[in-house]
Amino acid sequence: MGRIRGCRCASRLREWDLAIVVAAGLCASFGVPVAWAQGAPVELIKTDVTKLKTLDSSQWTVLGVRLGDSKEGALRLLQQTGNIRVQDDPAAGRIFVYAPPTGKSVVMSLRISQSQVTAINLIGGFSEWLQGDTRLLFRAFDDDSLRHKLLGREDQREMVRGGTKEAPTADVSYAYFKEGILLHYSVKVSADGKQAETLREMVLIYPARAR
User: Fold this and answer.
1) Any idea where the domains of the chain sit in the sequence?
2) Burial level of 158, CB count in 10 A (0-12/13-18/19+)?
3) Phi and psi at residue 195, in whole multiples of 5°?
4) How far is Cα 112 from Cα 49, in angstroms, rounded to an integer?
5) Distance between CA 157 and CA 23 in Å, rounded?
6) Confidence at 39, pLDDT banded by 50, 70, 90
7) Do residues 138 and 124 lie in contact, with contact meaning Cβ atoms separated by under 8 Å?
């Protein structure tokens, strides 16, 4: 795999964990089972998932890792992958993936709950590893027509503004509960207004299931 650019923002991923937990709770209200029979998975770095007949994050793998995998199994798969560095952070309940391996840029993280993978965050430059129109999802945050073309209309949209007048922040998320996809974008402007830290990510969670 080639070199990709990531995000030096592991702390902000931790801050967004609560939103993922809330989203997972909303999915549960739709009737998500704890586990279900899994078919042959589709690997995201080899397949343009926007061209699939059905979008179902539970049937996808990323670098071999799949929702519901054990923490031990996920670590083993990632450690066998070249050109990345893997960091297990039990205190954060996360496994972080850095690329290049000597750098500080997070390109992927796994949320671990009860020793299982419950969310997969694909961050910033990871889009360079994706195929076809799937890459465009990282440009679809401020383009409703593009996002609707690729995924359809979102189940829920949320925007939260904060910070101060001198250093504003904005946090936007688009939830596709039935497909198990969250698109998340945030921006934080420095106090002098000269720099802006941005985070773009696609998060895979368990899809909602009808009761």
Assistant:
1) 10-30+43-204
2) middle
3) -130, 150
4) 24
5) 12
6) low
7) yes
Tell me the helix, strand and coil percentages in the chain, rounded to 5: 25, 35, 40
Residue 60: name the closest of 210, 207, 208, 183 by CA.
207
Amino acid residing at 122: L
Rounded to the nearest 10 degrees, how much is the dihedral formed by the CA atoms of 14, 20, 22, 24? -140
Determine if the pTM surpasses 0.70.
yes
- Smallest Cα–Cα separation from 66: which of 45, 42, 49, 90? 42
The per-residue pLDDT for range 143-196, each reduced to its tens digit, is 899 999 999 999 999 999 998 888 899 999 999 999 999 999 999 888 887 788
Report yes or no: 193 and 201 within 8 Å, Cβ to Cβ. Answer: no
Cα separation of 32 and 208, whole Å? 5
Which residue's structure tokens are 């904005």? 170
Look up tokens 């770095």; give the residue: 45
The per-residue pLDDT for range 65-114, each reduced to its tens digit, is 999 999 999 999 999 999 999 999 999 999 999 999 999 999 999 999 99
